[in-house]
Amino acid sequence: MKELIRAFIALDLPFEVKNYITISLFELKKYFKYEAIRWVNTENLHITFAFFKEIDKSLLINKFQNLKFNFDNIYIVSIDERIYDFNYRVLYLKPDNYEFFLSVYNEILKEFKDYMDIKEKFIPHLTIARIKNKLTLKEMEIIKNFKIPAIQFKVQEIALFQSVLLPTGPVYYKLKTIPLNPF
What we know:
By secondary structure, the protein is of the alpha+beta class.
């Protein structure tokens, strides 16, 4: 019997990077009520390559294991210091090295294009919050002017996660990983 799950393929951030981002956002969070913005929990910070609403778990794991990444370099990713938005519905940070992210995305696309619901151009991003209620002009200005110090880290693996929705928010379970650098 098929077990259908919600899942995604992502770059899981190192623990130190997740904490750094959370601590950097602490000052910004003070300006907003919980009802207005739902901040992403520290442990859930990641950069998504592909999302699957309902997919057979065993099929997904098997196809994920078929992915092959051929990178000769150890990739260093910098997270931009500016907060961006998708029409003030999602707040996110943007990584640099777009070519790296696009090459990983294209490899995933080769294996999963029949299972992905692609509506827009791929934009690598790290979601930090979702806007629940309309923000005031003052609140939008606070976000626009807020900066966090940029951070760099080595990319070590791509991960497959299962996403379980709970009333308190999503919980992610790492199912499999693929190392990007053999060193």
